[in-house]
Design goal:
heterodimer, A: alpha+beta, 8-stranded antiparallel sheet, 3-stranded antiparallel sheet, 7 helices, globular, B: 68 residues, 66% helix, 4% strand, rod-shaped
Chain lengths: 303, 68
């Protein structure tokens, strides 16, 4: 098995393949990640996203790529009933997460959350301009990363097996290195580096949403994290530690995982069952539920 | 007469309590079974231990998914 790794979007990117990839493929993939990060990162002051967030209500002429991502994000907000909402920028900043890597610094200063205006206030005009009301800020976070992975898959050959993993958001093609599928460990959120289960993935995408990784103490002594509940503008008080979802695209898996995590364990189980969503739900006590995983569940670790 | 009355009252009290206990236990069992049956088709497992042969049949994971 071949493996190529690089760093982008604040995380490790792995490209695994069941044999050598065509020359130039890994460079194309790296360049693609850099292109998207340059446009959509809230941590880069000259990114399209940062310029839009500073537009103060003035019409902003967005690039076709930006419009595509924004439109998909707004569709996801609509489809999730607002549980996924890209306008959480000022909420996550108020929680203390202002600069890239902040959560690794231990104690962050938190301020009162701003009113959360919601995605419905964003307007995209017919000529490709975005109207973002003053006081509304967009954070595309994990959504943009998942979208980047989905598009990067189009750069990879269709006649070999490969897996592209961007910090836990991944898409896999083919039967894996041993024809038993690609084996994907689901990290135990309480014990990073260990797995609670192993999934067998073929031609599917996987995404995990967790409140345990980007986590810090506030100056007020409270434990905080980066997953903002759009209904409150504050870090979610969910009883779920992490949610892993299997879907056709990383973008879909990412949005569903967030929606389930924000819903809490009881509602998440009900939603997953009702909507036939393959999901691994791990609550804050360490109890795992496997919903609709069927033949994709290779191993479950015991107590 | 009084002793007979007391004995009768005691038997009634014990009987009623036992019936109540049995009814309660039966209801709990029935409810638990119903929950297990409805969950079985949807929520598959909660931390069940894996068999040794199942562990050996699966190689080490190729990668990992985690929150980011």
């Amino acid at each position: 098995m071949e493996m190529h790794a690089f760093r982008a979007m604040g995380t490790e990117i792995e490209l695994l393949s069941n044999g050598p990839l065509p020359p130039g493929t890994t460079v194309e993939v790296e360049d693609w990640f850099e292109t998207v990060e340059a446009a959509l990162s809230r941590f880069r002051p000259d990114s399209e996203l940062s310029l839009l967030n500073a537009s103060d209500g003035r019409p902003f002429a967005a690039s076709p790529m930006f419009l595509e991502v924004l439109t998909l994000a707004l569709d996801a907000a609509r489809g999730s009933g607002g549980l996924f909402d890209p306008t959480v920028l000022y909420g996550v900043m108020a929680a203390g997460y202002r600069e890239s890597g902040d959560y690794e610094r231990g104690i962050l200063v938190a301020t009162a959350p701003p009113p959360n205006p919601g995605w419905k206030d964003i307007e995209v005009t017919h000529d490709g301009c975005v109207l973002l009301p003053p006081g509304v800020g967009i954070d595309l976070g994990g959504f943009a990363k998942g979208w980047t992975v989905d598009r990067a898959a189009g750069l990879l050959p269709r006649d070999c097996a490969w897996l592209l993993n961007a910090g836990g958001d991944l898409i896999a093609r083919g039967n894996g290195p041993s024809s038993d599928g690609w084996l994907v460990g689901v990290e135990d959120p309480a014990q990073p580096g260990t797995d609670v289960a192993v999934l067998q993935i073929r031609n599917r995408a996987v995404a995990t949403s967790s409140i345990m990784r980007r986590r810090w103490l506030t100056d007020g002594g409270a434990v905080s994290h980066h997953l903002i509940d759009p209904r409150t503008g504050c870090p979610s008080e969910t009883d779920l530690a992490s949610v892993t979802v299997i879907a056709r695209t990383v973008t879909q898996a990412e949005v569903i995982a967030k929606r389930l995590l924000l819903s809490g364990s009881t509602e998440a189980r009900a939603i997953s069952s009702r909507e036939h969503i393959p999901a691994v739900l791990i609550d804050s006590s360490g109890c795992s539920s496997f919903v609709n995983c069927g033949g994709m569940l290779a191993v479950v670790r015991g107590e | 007469m009084a002793r007979k009355g007391i004995a009768t009252e005691a038997r009634l009290h014990v009987t009623a309590g036992s019936v109540a206990l049995l009814l309660s236990a039966w209801a709990a069992l029935a409810a638990g079974d119903a929950i297990k049956q409805s969950n079985a088709s949807q929520v598959e497992a909660v931390r069940r231990p894996i068999a040794p042969n199942q562990q050996q049949a699966v190689r080490a994971p190729d990668t990992q998914t985690r929150g980011s």
